[in-house]
Input
Amino acid sequence: MPASPPVHPRQALFEPGEPAAAPLPVCDHYAGVEPRMRKSLELQAELGPVFDVTLDGEDGAPVGGEVEHAQLIAELIDSPLNVHGRVGARVVPVSHPAFPGMVEAVVRRAGARLAYLMVPKVHGATDLRAAAECIDRVAAAAGVGRTIPLHALVETHGALHEAFALAAHPRIESLSFGLMDFVSAHRGAIPHTAMSAAGQFEHPLVLRAKLEVAAACHAHGKTPSHCVVTEFKHPAKLQEAATRAARELGYTRMWSIHPAQVRPIIDAFTPTAAEVDLAIEIIAKAQAAHWAPISHRDTLHDRASYRYFWQVLERARRTSYTGGPQLPAEVRRAYFEPAA
Output
């Protein structure tokens, strides 16, 4: 009898229905002023869909002009500049009087091409449900034939308290930790140094909040997104913060607020060449053994470690961009490209 074809890692290593985070790009770049929004879309077209662009209608909109700004956002999302379909929008909080109008403007014009809607300053699951219901009503009335994914910002005491409930919501793809507003919510009890690139990793209350968000996301198969580094003229500080977020706190995505931050964030979340080489060796050897336990470099491996090394390869694929690190062509063909 001919040998059976090798079982793909996704089928061999994960149970049907097992929670798995959406394969979101590791960088989420925010822009709210029209020239910067356009430049961000141009950079995404150049590098490929290795980072998301979030067009910002909260901090980017003039006070009183939120709906008009949302109309501009919708126009850009529904334009030829949106090459890869990885453009989302941040609206105002659900309690803001402009929330329904912004949702209407974005979803009615661009709902078919909108990657996600980011909802800021949720105070808990009740806010998230209200936002989802409003978005769904608008989408249904506009004839949008899809369910729009939601992202939410954990930046209030209530949201942190209900982080697991937020992550469990079926519409949520990602939770982001909002550093600046979280520190401000403590009314001076946390010093301003905790908003810096280094200080945010030192203050116990901030560190506790970051870990809670990451743990909630991983428990429910969602993507934890790390907060900003405002010192955008200091690449070494950004690189260190991004590396610590990825290596120490379990974050798999991070915000960028300046175009110069995009590539360093992607690089920090990219597995090293040594990690990729080891993963390739172990996955190939495990597949050849029909996923039975193996010994590799005097170390025993089984399905638990296979799952980890497969995820290394998936992350390497998501972070391969033009001019940056690339997953070997033979690995892409073997695991990530459909058979001819």
Notes: The domain at 27-268 is CATH 3.20.20.60 (TIM Barrel). The chain is about 45% helix and 15% strand.
